[in-house]
Amino acid sequence: MIGLTKRSKVTKRLTVVLLSFLFSLLVFIIADLLFPLPDFNKGYSTIIYSSENTIIHCFLSQDDKWRIRADYEEISGELAQTIISKEDQYFYYHPGINPIAVFRAAFNNILKGRRTSGASTITMQLARIMQPADRNFKSKLREVFRALQLEWHFSKKEILTMYLNHLPYGGNIEGVKSASLIYFNQLPKELSPAQIVMLTVIPNNPNNLIPGKRSALIMKRNYWLLKLGHKGIFSKQEVEDALVEGFESKRFILPKAAPHLSYRLKNSGNDRIYTSLKIELQSKVEALLANYVRPLRSLQITNAAVLIVDNHTRKVLAYAGSAGFDEEIYSGQVDGVRALRSPGSTLKPALYLLGFDKGLISPKTVVTDVPVNFGGYRPENYDETYRGQVTIEQALSLSLNVPAVELLDQIGVGVMNQTLANAGFNWIRVNSKRTGLSMILGGCGTSLEELTGLYSALANKGIWKKLQFTDHFGNVDTLGKRIGSPAGTYMITQILTELKRPDLPNEYLESAKLPRIAWKTGTSYGRKDAWAIGYNADFTVGVWTGNFDGQGVPELNGSDCAVPLLFMIFNQLPAGKDEWFTSTPDADFRLVCSITGMPADTFCHNLVMETFIPGISPSQRCNHQKKVFTNAAGTISYCNECLPETGYKATFYPNYTPELISYYEDMLIPYKKIPEHNPECTALNQNGIGPVITSLTDGAEYLVFAGKKQQLMLKSSCANGTTQVYWYIDTKFCKKAKPGEPVYIVAEKGNHILTCSDDRGRSSSIRFTVTPI
């Protein structure tokens, strides 16, 4: 009976304890719901990493703290063990508060009449960091409650990690990783025992126990080294070595490499950003760029930018937006990789690629390089000279302007703009309707990033993909967009690899350091931008030189100012494993006439080999000669209407265009002329190509000074065989002249019709207006 009574009492006590526990738990859950943990998102410093996980750039947090987040795995076991042993040895066993420590601290404080020891656990210290307040009884109760909440919501590992990331280390330094980098220039896992103990003791008095106050820190370090050694945290030898270990009493500067890309990616929403940069290559490029620009500044060329892309992945390996980010005098913080600039001639390979794919041209196609008027727009070559006839290969390698504008006129500016828009050219996409024929010579806005991406597409058989700046970034473009055929890009690469070209600097003509690359240069109008962009199978490198304020410099050009840097960079890149570009299945080879680049006819004797696209490249037979009937002396030509029954012969004459004939006449270049047409012919040919008026523009308004007899120049291009042209103003005869001969007239105020007729009855007319001012 007595046993039952005792058992009943024990049961009742257990029930009371259980009910009390459940009631306390319920109260705690309700309190947890009513008073949730405060938002502890103080924000970490943004850290930029290289592709090798090396820190390359650090930014302060939004509250101007060096608070660098460290995962639990980044912290050495000895560091975590040391801090736990010193601050809260029962951390893994209590629920946030340590009752034994509370009673011990209370007993000691009452016994000695003052506060001699605390009872704060690591969890309670974290609660105090989360919600700072004056040290009083009320704040202590709140710490206890918050500590219980933290243990309720987070694991011990998470609590310890948050604690280590927010420990104060003096000034604006918080967290063990920040302190480790700033005080010792090492990551937490690389710390020695002496450094570990220093990071353990500094948070107790962060204003006095810092490396700058050497004596106090050494005394505290040594005291705890001995104490922790007795606890077995460190071996005897480790303690002995640590006691004599020195350290530098200074703050190390955190890395600041790749500043332009770092600032570009800074606000991506993550405090850790893993770029695709190769830190060693990035450092080489930054140093090379700074040294390269230094002598150019004596010529008032103050800056440069470089971008290097891995052609296989489209990842950016090096990114230098200027020669010196901190050079305020040279606007070093401007990002030359993204800056909107005039591309000069760097877009021409994309134009010729379109021409190949549309079947308008092939590499050996011969075109004219003579002065041409495109509705008032008269492009000139960079060297202000013309070459008469050139192949497409020569036109691109020599970067001639007139053939490029003529090809763009055939293709259409809209088609070209759409192709470039598909290749990521944003300004051209937005301003497509505002661009004209001049865009192919630099009359548009592009960036080094866009141009480098375009040439990387040439290295990848015409597939364009967006460049990647990070290693951990979603929505990577795996398919890309086709902007050209494999055969077309192969032919472009063949041309851009040629070494007989004006943009090869003289010092590289016989140089063994000349890298094997395909490259193109560009110089913008006014010599404000100089470009050089090159590629091989593995890498594409883009170089820009110039002034960020847009100042033009007479000495600035792509060949002398950008190409040497391009070659230097390629010589720093690792040797590729891939072979050089080879022909593609959609390309083939054929023999063509060397005079026209067209498939040979019976009168073609000099043939050359060219790459072409079967079924697409021009297939019309050569027509560089045409049969003309003349008298026996070869002084008069006949048409079918006036051909006599006897006394004539058939002779082949060059089939030149009117523009080329006009150029030959102007430059006094001898050529085989078709004799004057039979003057007794009663039925002059009304068909064929009539004279083309090249001096005035159809629909244009010309301003003249009132009261002065200002003259307007008239000039025309005519078909081969034309000997005379006749000028008419408003149907009234004005003057007679030879083809290509300039004629000067005075036109009255108002609207006029100008007509030019040749000696075969063919004519053309334009309208223009004269307005006195």
Question: What's the rounded overall pLDDT mean?
Answer: 87
Shape: elongated
Helix percentage range: 25-40%
Strand order of the largest sheet: 7-6-14-13-12
Poorly predicted segments = none
CA-atom Rg in angstroms: 41 Å
- Number of DSSP helices? 22
The fraction of residues in strands falls at 15-25%
> Could you give the count of β-strands?
29
Counting copies of identical and different chains, the oligomeric state is single chain
Distance between the termini: 131 Å
Structure description:
This protein is α+β, with helices and mostly antiparallel strands. The protein is 32% helix and 18% strand. The chain contains 22 helices and 29 strands. The strands form ten sheets. It has a five-stranded antiparallel β-sheet with strand order 7-6-14-13-12, with helices on both faces. Strands 22-29-28-25-26 form a five-stranded mixed β-sheet, with no helix packed on it. The longest helix has 33 residues. It is elongated. The model has no long low-confidence stretch (mean pLDDT 87).
